[in-house]
Queue: 4 jobs
Job 1
Amino acid sequence: METLLLNTIHVQNLLVIINRLHMLLHSTALAFLFYYRLCFLFQPSETIESHSLPWLLVFASEIILSFIWILDQAYRWHPVLRSIFQERLLEDHKLPSIDVFICTADPTKEPTLDVMNTVLSAMALDYPPQKLHMYVSDEGGSPLTLHGVREASKFARSSVYMEDKQKIKEKYEAFKEEIKTFRKDRTFSRDHPSVNEVMQETIIDDADNVKMPLLVCVSREKKPSDPHHFKAGAFNVLLRASSVMSNSPYILVLDCDMFCNDPTSKGTDLLQLKEYFGSSNEFIRSLAQNCTSDLVSGQKYALLEEPHFLASCNYEIGTK
C-alpha cells in the first residue's frame, strides 16, 4: 500500500535567483573592500603608524560582520515552501501518546504565571487529550508553583468547552489574580522533600464527559549535601516518574534540555539494567515497552509511592 506524504516541498526558483545574485554582488563588494584594506598595509610606514590602530579596528569589525553575513546566507541559498496535508494524518486512535516535559526552578526568576501559560498552551495542543501527558518539574519545591499548577488545572477544565470568549477572559483574569495573591507572604526553601501530585487524570469522570490531558507536578527531593546535577538531574527524574505513569514513546520538551534512555538497553540483563537505571522494578519494566503503566490505569490518586521513590536523593546512588 502506497504511503501518502504528509507534506510536499516546492523550491522558490525566482527567490533562489534573486538571493544568489544578491550574494554575488555583496561578495564582490566585500572582496573589493578587503583588497582596499589590505593595500593599506603596503603603504609608506609613516602613514601606517599614524592611522594603524583605527584602521585595524575598523578592518576587524568588517571581518566579523562579513563572517556573520556569510553564516546568514545558508537558509537563503535554497528557499522552499512546504504544503501540508492535515487530512492525511493518522486517525486519533492510531496516533502515539506523547509526554510533555516543562521545567521550572525559581518563581522569582521564572514567573509562575509565565510557566502556567506554557502549561495551558501545551494542554491546548491539537492532539487527542487521552494521549497527551503533561509533567511540570519544579526544581525549587515552591508552594507557589504547585498552587499555580493546581489553578491551571482548574482553569483548563472549566474553560475547555466554553465558547464565550468574554467569560474565558474573566476566568483567566481570576486565575492570574489567584496566583498573584498566593505569592504574598510566602517563603521558599531549597531543601525540600519530593512531591508528585496528579492534578487531573487523562479522562474525567463520565458525568462531566470532559477529556483533559494528564497533568502532573513533579518536585524531586533536594538536600544541600547531595548533588542534584541541575537540569539533567531534573529530566532524569521526569523520565523515571513518567515511565511508571504514562510511559509514552515520544517526549516533547518545552524550553529545556532533553535526556533519553539508551534504546540498546532493551533485552539487557536485569542486574546490569539496575546498575544504570536504579532499583525500581516498575521503572526497569517500562524500558522494554511503550504502553501505559499499571499504576495509572483506572486509578484516582494524588500522590504515588513509586514516583516518590524515583524522585528521592538516594535513588541514583550506586548507579552508573
Job 2
Amino acid sequence: MKKVPFFKRYKKTIISLGIIVVLFLGLGYYLGFQHIPHHVRELGQMVGISGNMDSGEQAAMDAAVTTEDMTTEVASAPEFPLDTLMWVNSIKNGDYIPDGVKEELARIRKTDFSKMSVATDKPNDSEIRQAIVQRFGEEAINLLKQNDATLKGGKAYHAPLQNSEKNGQEIARVTMMVTAFNSKHVNLMNIQEPLLPVYDFVKFESDPDTWYVTDISQTIPYDYKLNKR
C-alpha cells in the first residue's frame, strides 16, 4: 500500500493553522494583543474551535473581555481653592473642623501645581465685575451694593480652550480667584452665591474683546496675595 505523504495527508489542517497564526499576528499588530481574546473567540466560532474549549477556558475569556469593556478612567472634578494654612492651624489648635476638610487637605497636598502656566492676558477688576454682573444680573448687583463691595481678581492660570456649538471657539480661557472687599478693605469672602471664590473667564472668536464668566475647569492654588489685601 502506497504511503500518503504527511503534508498531503494533513494539508487542510496545516493550511487552517497557518491562516489562524497569520490572523493572530495581524490582530496583534493592528489591534493590540490585549484585544485579541475577543477576536479569537469570534474566530473560533467561525472555524469551529470554540466547541473544543472547556467551560473554564470560556469563562476566563468572557471575564477578560468583560473587564476590558468595563474599565474606564474617572477624572476628578475641579475644586475651589483651599486655604490650607488656615485649616492646618485650626487642626493644630484643636478647633472645630467641618466634615470633609481633612480629606480635601490631603487631596490638595497631593496635587501638583508646578505645571500650571500663569496667564498675563486676564480680565481686570472692571472686566471681572462686568462679566459677573452680565451673567448673574440683579442678584450680583444687589449683593455688591448691600455690602458696599468691589471685586478684585488674583493670579490667573491658563486653562484648556473649549469649543461649543452654542458659543463657538474660545481664544482665551483663564482660571482665577475673585474676592469681594468692602470700602474698609475688609475681605468679605465672596459674601454668598452667586459670588464664588473662583471662576473661569473666557473670550470667544466671535467677541474677542469681551471677557465672559463661566464655571471653573481646573483646580488652582489658593491666592494668598489676593486675600491679604
Job 3
Amino acid sequence: MCSQCNSTKPLRLCLTCQKSQNWKDVNMQSHALCEGCAEQGMRRTAGEGHVHHCDSTSIREKLEGTPDIECRRCSTITNNPYLCSTCFHISTDHINVDTFSLCADCILDHHSGHETSKATENYSIRISTVPIVEKVLLGKLSSTEKEDEKKCKVRQLRMSITGKEVIYRASTHYPLWTEEDCTDPKLLGRPKIPKDYVQNVLSSLEQQFDFIQKMTEPCPCVAVWENVKRLNIFDAHGSPPHFLAMVNTPDLEKVLDRCPLELEENRELKEQLMEVIERGEVLTEPHEKIFRYYDLQTF
C-alpha cells in the first residue's frame, strides 16, 4: 500500500528518501574510519569480483561539533572521519518498506527526480522472515559455542562467521539486483549471490556442526588458542586476527576435512602466529588486522 495515498497500485521504493533518512537516524560514528583505513578499503575492493567498490566519503561536516572520533578498524583518533557510503547504506537497519513504498502518481507528485526501485514481494518476505531464521540459526550456534571451542576453536569460529555471513547475504542489507543492472526479471529485488548459494552454505554449516558435535578429542588448535588468550594476541576489536583470516574466506560453502589451522593455504598464517607465540611476550597493544585478498572470480 502506498505510504502517502494508500493506493494499492504497483509500488516503488524511494531510495533517495531512504538514504536521506539513514543519514539522520543511523549513528555514523559507529561506521567512522580514519583516512588510512578508508583508503585501504578502497584498495581492497578495487578491481573485478567485488559486489561493490568502496568509496571514501568524508563525514566531517555531518558530524560538525562532535569531538574527535575513534576509527572503528584501527582505533586511531581522528578529527576528519570517513566512511564508505555504500557500506553504510547496505548495513543500515533503516529499511522500512512501508515508509518508502509509493505508487507511481505519488512518485511523480512528491518524489520527482528521486532514485527509485521497483518494490518486489520477495523484498518484503525477506524483511519479515530473515530475522526469524537469524534468531534460530545463530541461537543454535551460540548454545554450543563454549563446548565447541573446547573441541576445535578454529572450526567454531568458522561456523560463527559462516552463520552471520549467510544471514547477511540472504537479507535485504546485501546488494540487490535492480532494474538498472538486472538481466533476468526473476532476479529483480533479490541478493546478488550465485544460485543456491544460501542453501549450499547452510548445508555446509550443518555438516560442520554435526562433525564438531561428534568430536571426542580436542583439536591441536585448542592449545594454540590458549596461548593466543595468554599472550593477548587480539586486534583492536578483540578478535584473534590470524584465526579470523584463516576462516574469513569466500568459499564458506566448502566442507573442510580438517581444521583450518592445518590447511596448506593457511600455513603462512600459522607460522606467523607461532612466531608471535614463541616470543612469549604479552601484547600490550592490539595486533594489527590481517587482510587477505582473493580473486573472487575463482569462487
Job 4
Amino acid sequence: MNAAVDALVCMALITAAIAGVLTVDQSPPTRIDRADTIANTLTTTTTTIEYSPTLEIDDFDSRLVSPEQYRLTRRTHDTLAGLIARATISGTRTQKAQLTRIDDDFRLRVRNAVRARTGGRVRVDARWVPYPGSPLFAHFSVGPRPLSQSDTVHTATVNIPVGVAPVSIETHDQFRTLGTAVAARLVAVVVPPGSTRVMMRDDEPGITLTRYRYARLQSLTNASLAEPLATENTTEANARLTAALAPEITSDLQRRYKTPAVATEAVSVTTVEIIIRTWGHGGES
C-alpha cells in the first residue's frame, strides 16, 4: 500500500490503533491553567502515532481475517486537535451502541497523546452532533472533571472541520431537501466514498474492515447495499444509505423546528466541536 493510500485510510478512519508507539513533541506539558492556552496547544502541536489495525470483528465473517495473518502498521500525523476530531468520528454511535469497536485502541492512543501534552487539571470534551436528536453522533473525552464547584473554570472552544460542505439556508427551503442534505453529509463523514472505494480495491484486511463498517450501517438503516458493494460502488452505497436515513432526519427536523431556516441554523454536521476546560485545584479522574 503506498503513502497516498495510507493517508486516505487515516482520513476514512477504517482502521484502529493497537500496540501503538507514540511520538510526541519533546517540549514539557503546558502548565498555565488557561483554556485558551491549551486550545492553542491543541491546534498547533503535532503528534505522530504509529499503530496497527484491530482485526477482530464480531458477527461478520471474522474467519476471513485473523490477527495472526495480518500485521499492518499505520502512522498518523496531525495536530492534537485534528487527532481528537478523528478519534471522535471513529467512535460514531447510535443511542444504543457504538457503530463499531474497531477504533477503540486508536482512540486510546489519541487520548494518551493529548493527556501527555496538556497535563492535569485539563478536561477536553469533543462532540460531533449533526443536529439535536441525530440518529448518529459521537463523543470523545480526555482528562478529569473539575471536582469542586468552587474551582474557577476557564473554557475555550475549537471547531475542526470534518470534510463536508456546510448546509446552506438559501439552498434548502423545504424540510425534505434539508433532511436529504443532512443525511448525505452524515453518511459521507462516517464512510467517505472516495477513501472507502480505495479500501474496497485494496488487499485484506482493508476490504473486510470496510465491508464491516458498511454492514453495520446497513443493519441500522435497512438499506440494501449488497449490489453496490459487490461492484465496489461506494458512491451508490452511500446514496442508498442517504435515502434510507433521509425520511427519519426530515421528520425529526420538522418536529423540532418551525421552519427549514431555523432547522438549518441548528445543523452542525460539518464540524467536531472541542471544548477545553481548565481549573486551578482539585479534580477527579
